[in-house]
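Progress note, sequence design subtask.
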């Protein structure tokens, strides 16, 4: 299962109430982390007697004050989850939730650590030899603030991923404002996880000697190991999960699935790229819809070429084989059948005719009542276009003859084929355009189809078509026939079995 699918499934299990609780619990988790780090300090320095000021001060700042700030910070988003405000009213707050939550915790940690580290300098706390140097005290305050800021920043970043998915799948909204920078996030993560612990240890080495130095180094090393391991989990989740969702969506699109839409789960460049991905897929889906819909009115190949050429097909002079198909006695038939049966018959007829033409790389250019005009070698190139046209004609005749149409009737078709040079392209102006194939060869094909009635045949083709057929066709010459609109007569052929 892809990362995107897993994320969507997880988001579906969330509720508005659970998302609210999770935010508050994540914000208050800094109290537990502080207790662990303080416990490491008291254990290695054998100063459990200081718990009387460490635990209450931490509870006041990281539980009480932190909960008040978290409630204030999340209140607008909570109102949206309850359906009381629109998404536009909270989008900016949601986008900045990660940074502002970390800022609040950073300020509280600064106050807390300043109180703790400065207290021994002003009153006798029984700290004794554990009195820190000024440099160590200041660096401890800075590192603690940086660590808790970073921890909450990535904790809430990971939370924002789940919140974004929930809002996307429940309400259909996505982030469109981006204030974060992926490079800055990565730089802060590397700084806090690698450089700051080394600085603390170097300060210990230069500030203390003997057993005191070893104890201080042990405290900072153990606390750093715990902090880095904890931060690494959420740093990785916060930075990698949005990339995994994006990668999963790209995989689905590559597999041909164009209804993919991804939740934007980060407020940085990855979120921006995810938004652009969604717009790209929408564009692809619209293009595919236009192509498929357009292809119902002209052939899909013509539609695809028109879209490729930005709305117009330039004139293309090429030899092609042209085919006209007509239903024998359709006028009389349409008078005898109810209108709905006539429409049903024409729909069945068009489907039967289309399949053989498409199978032989031909293109149906239009349906005019019961008449069908198809081309071979335009716009799709086909080297053996004459043979393809005659094979399609034979299959059409056989399929029509064996089919019982709406109203319980059987029909016969007459087919005329001619090969010659034509010009094809978009004609018209403004918003009235059509794809047209023009040339004397088109007119001849139409006239040849009409001659079927006079010659009592079902399939006729000209000598230019006959010249391009291979030996597999059993052609029968029908002599020279005058063609309406032409001064010269043409030699016509049919297939002997017809």
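Output:
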């Amino acid at each position: 299962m892809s990362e995107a699918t897993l994320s969507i499934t997880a988001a579906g299990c969330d509720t508005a109430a659970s998302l609210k609780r999770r935010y508050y619990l994540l914000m208050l988790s800094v109290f537990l982390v502080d207790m662990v780090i303080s416990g490491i300090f008291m254990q290695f320095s054998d100063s459990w007697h200081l718990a009387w000021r460490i635990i209450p001060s931490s509870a006041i700042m990281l539980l009480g004050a932190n909960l008040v700030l978290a409630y204030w910070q999340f209140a607008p988003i909570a109102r949206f989850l309850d359906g009381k405000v629109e998404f536009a009213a909270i989008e900016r707050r949601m986008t900045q939730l990660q940074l502002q939550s970390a800022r609040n915790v950073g300020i509280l940690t600064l106050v807390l650590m300043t109180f703790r580290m400065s207290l021994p300098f002003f009153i006798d706390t029984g700290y004794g030899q554990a009195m820190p140097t000024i440099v160590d005290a200041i660096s401890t305050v800075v590192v603690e603030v940086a660590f808790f800021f970073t921890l909450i920043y990535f904790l809430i970043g990971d939370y924002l991923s789940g919140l974004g998915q929930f809002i996307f799948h429940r309400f259909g909204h996505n982030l469109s404002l981006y204030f974060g920078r992926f490079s800055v996030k990565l730089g802060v993560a590397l700084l806090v996880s690698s450089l700051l612990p080394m600085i603390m240890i170097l300060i210990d080495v230069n500030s203390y000697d003997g057993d005191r130095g070893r104890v201080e180094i042990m405290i900072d090393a153990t606390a750093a190991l715990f902090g880095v391991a904890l931060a690494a989990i959420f740093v990785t989740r916060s930075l990698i999960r949005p990339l995994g969702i994006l990668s999963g969506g790209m995989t689905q699109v590559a597999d041909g699935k164009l209804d993919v839409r991804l939740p934007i789960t980060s407020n940085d460049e990855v979120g921006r790229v995810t938004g652009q991905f969604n717009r790209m897929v929408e564009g692809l889906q619209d293009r595919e819809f236009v192509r498929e819909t357009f292809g119902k009115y002209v052939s899909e190949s013509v539609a695809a070429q028109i879209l490729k050429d930005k709305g117009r097909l330039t004139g293309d002079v090429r030899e092609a084989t042209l085919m006209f198909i007509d239903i024998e006695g359709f006028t009389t038939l349409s008078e005898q059948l109810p209108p709905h049966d006539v429409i049903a018959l024409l729909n069945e007829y068009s489907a039967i005719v289309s399949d053989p033409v498409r199978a032989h790389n031909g293109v149906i250019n239009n349906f005019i009542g019961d008449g069908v005009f198809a081309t071979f070698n335009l716009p799709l190139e086909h080297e053996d276009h004459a043979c393809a046209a005659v094979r399609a004609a034979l299959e059409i005749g056989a399929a029509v003859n064996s089919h019982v149409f709406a109203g319980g009737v059987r029909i016969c078709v007459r087919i005329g084929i001619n090969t010659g040079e034509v010009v094809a392209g978009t004609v018209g102006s403004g918003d009235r355009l059509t794809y047209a194939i023009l040339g004397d060869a088109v007119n001849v094909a139409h006239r040849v189809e009409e001659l079927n009635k006079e010659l009592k045949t079902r399939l006729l083709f000209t000598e230019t078509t006959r010249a391009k057929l291979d030996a597999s066709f059993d052609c029968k010459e029908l002599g020279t026939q005058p063609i309406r609109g032409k001064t010269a007569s043409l030699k016509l052929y049919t297939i002997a079995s017809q």
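The first helix runs from residue 3 to 13. Work on this subtask will continue into the next period as scheduled.
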